[in-house]
Design goal:
single chain; TIM Barrel; nine-stranded mixed sheet; 31% helix; globular
């Protein structure tokens, strides 16, 4: 019996909250006689679960012909694999695609499908005609041919695995596809979009979004006579800015939610009863599932975290992947925060991964607020002919090799999981927050500049000693916002009037608002909307965030580098707190409003120098907002509600700093790649 349930904040295993500690092994890339050794090492490392793709192209080797028993190839024996995972006492996390990526040819889509159904390719509209584009060959997610083929695949694989599900078996999670979106982020394929059909995806979306043709024609300065025959390029040609908004709304509020709905129906109709999951391909990609979750609240979304994408493990990578990712997930996904793919190797051989880095990487991830990880890739493999995107080798710098033997960093990973378990009460404790940080919830936010501004602002606050609690400020009620003593909002030029009014009322009632990025001046339709600026007595100018290599702001006679454009605005001179370098244009302002105060910082903050933390601290001091942590430049500090705080050193050398926690000094000395609890 496997006792496994999920709550919004936790994995409940064997009746109590426990971390979900998982490692990924690709049985289909490993000789069958090595499976048992690899699973034994996974269990020895401290994991309680194993994840694995069940590749469509491997098991449906020809259309309608399946091998789940090792008849076509011995490593296709899914049943032996599943029985072994259960015998080893491991929970199983199944990932049957249809897309799996995993450095496989055609990203896991069978060659026979792309050859037989070329019209299902993602298509662009160029020079008056449609042509395949992006990573080709491929399959557009909602294309009828693709869905029919996926339905047959799901029916087959579900039939094989459903009797292994918890509670009687050990399968506890079932993944729907992988790392949405991929190439059809802008698919114009008329067959996929249902052009010409009253119930087609795109016509239905336009009807739902605009209500009437008159409204759509007014927005696009057009004279369309039917929703059914409107193609995306027709709208883009008439109003590119409006089309961009509609394009993001279509894909993230309509297209992808519909795809997940279809997959879920097929899975449930074929006996899958365990939770259905999916992964955002990095922390900012969480934004791509915000609206998906509102239409499909049953979907459990995790996050992929690979620091080697940035080159080396540094403080920015740790804060972005571990801390920002966990916070963003908690606030915007409303399900247990977990890492669906946690780097424990890397698909290239450069940069090399090191055991001590992987140790502190796992520790920091769980300390920051994630409740589970799936270490990817735990065991190396070899690709059969034609299987691998990069050829035969699939080394991945994994802690276990293809023969089921330990590599050098296995012991560091084992040590990290043991230390997490030994301190699990502290690691699972809630973080102690000292400021709230609001992020916008616009569809497809990752494709907007404001997404990067938001993650950079989070890093700036963490560097200054704050522990921000991310909030969905646009969706939350005024009563919910009133509970927050200080609210840092990351904004751009667009903000709906009712949201601007809500922020005014928040400050009027005594709240402290920090408005960073830009003072909004537009409605989402592109029409002027300056309610917030008018209430605060600010005259704002249009703004575009761009590089400005020599730009600095001057505060108390000292110049602080920002390197970005500052939004031009006018206000009462007595409210100006800082000015832009070379000139008298204001760069920051502090103004009273009602019973509260507003700090305006109309520029992007990219932390390049420690001195910027001094600037932020000085400005926030003016509205009496102070961080819980002070003095740490090189050490990470994650404060917990229980008053037990996790101090971390990611550096390859010993670090000693005098750190203040809530005003109390601590002389901290930490060995390389280590942590302590104070």
């Amino acid at each position: 019996m496997t006792d496994f349930t999920l709550t919004e904040n936790s994995f409940i295993i064997d009746g109590r909250e426990q971390p979900f500690l998982c490692g990924e092994i690709h049985y289909f890339r490993m000789p069958k006689h090595n499976w048992s050794k690899a699973l034994d090492l996974l269990a020895e490392s401290g994991c309680n679960a194993v994840a694995f793709y069940i590749p469509w192209f491997v098991h449906e080797y020809s259309e309608g012909k399946f091998d789940f028993h090792g008849e076509f190839h011995e490593s296709n024996d899914l049943h032996t694999w599943l029985r072994l995972t259960r015998e080893k006492g491991l929970m199983a996390f199944c990932r049957p695609g249809p897309y799996i990526y995993a450095e496989t040819t055609n990203l896991g889509i069978p060659v026979w499908f792309t050859e037989k159904y070329p019209n299902a390719n993602v298509k662009a509209y160029k020079n008056g005609k449609y042509e395949s584009y992006g990573f080709v060959p491929n399959g557009a997610h909602n294309h009828p041919d693709f869905i029919r083929a996926v339905k047959r695949w799901y029916e087959a694989v579900c039939r094989e695995i459903r009797d292994y599900q918890a509670p009687n078996g050990n399968i506890v999670l079932f993944q729907l596809c992988n790392e949405i979106p991929n190439e059809d982020i802008d698919d114009r394929n008329p067959e996929n979009l249902g052009i010409g059909k009253p119930d087609g995806l795109y016509p239905s979306f336009l009807k739902e979004r605009y209500g009437s043709l008159d409204m759509l024609n007014k927005r696009y300065h057009a004279d369309f006579i039917s929703f059914e025959y409107i193609e995306p390029h027709m709208l883009e040609e008439r109003n590119k800015e409006q089309y961009f908004e509609d394009h993001l709304a279509f894909y993230y509020e309509y297209y992808y939610p519909e795809y997940f709905r279809k997959l879920a129906v097929i899975a449930r109709d074929n006996g899958i009863t365990v939770p259905l999951v999916h992964n955002a391909y990095n922390p900012r990609a969480i934004s791509l599932h915000y609206h998906n979750k509102r239409k499909n609240p049953w979907l459990i979304v995790g996050v992929d975290c690979y620091y080697s994408l940035a080159g080396r493990l540094g403080i920015k990578e740790l804060v972005y992947f571990c801390e920002f990712g966990a916070e963003y997930s908690r606030a915007f996904l409303k399900n247990v925060p977990w890492v669906m793919e946690q780097e424990c190797g890397y698909w290239h051989d450069y940069p090399a991964v090191y055991g001590p880095e992987l140790y502190i990487w796992n520790i920091w991830t769980m300390a920051a607020g994630y409740k589970g990880i799936n270490m990817y890739l735990f065991a190396s493999g070899e690709n059969r002919p034609g299987m691998g995107f990069y050829g035969t080798d699939h080394n991945w710098q994994a802690p276990v090799d293809v023969n089921g033997e330990k590599n050098a960093h296995f012991d560091d990973i084992k040590r990290s999981l043991q230390d997490i378990k030994d301190n699990i009460d502290v690691f699972l404790d809630e973080n102690r927050y000292d400021i709230a940080m609001g992020i916008k919830n616009s569809p497809g936010l990752i494709w907007r500049n404001i997404s990067k501004i938001s993650s950079e602002a989070y890093f700036a606050l963490r560097s200054t000693g704050f522990m921000p609690e991310i909030r969905d400020f646009e969706a939350e009620s005024l009563e919910e916002l009133k509970e927050l003593p200080a609210l840092w909002i990351v904004s751009d030029s667009v903000m709906e009037e009712h949201v601007q009014r809500k922020l005014c009322d928040y400050v009027k009632g005594g709240g402290k608002l920090i408005l960073q990025g830009a003072v909004p001046y537009l409605h989402e339709t592109g029409q002027p909307c300056t309610l917030l600026a008018d209430e605060l007595g600010i005259k704002v100018c249009p703004h575009k965030d761009e590089d400005c290599p020599q730009q600095k702001i001057v505060l108390d006679g000292k110049e602080y580098y920002i390197g970005r454009t500052v939004q031009k605005f006018e206000t009462d001179p007595e409210f100006i707190a800082a000015r832009a370098w070379e000139g008298q244009d204001p760069a920051a302002a502090v103004m009273p409003y009602g019973k509260g105060t507003v700090l305006v910082l109309p520029f992007r903050i990219d932390m390049k120098f420690y001195s910027m933390t001094e600037c932020i601290r000085k400005l926030l001091d003016r509205i009496a907002v102070k961080p819980f942590v002070e003095g740490n430049r090189l050490l990470g500090v994650i404060p917990k509600k229980s008053s037990r705080n996790i101090i971390l050193n990611y550096h390859p050398v010993e670090v000693r700093e005098m750190v203040k926690l809530d005003g109390r000094p601590y002389d901290i000395a930490l060995a390389p790649h280590s942590f302590m609890i104070v």
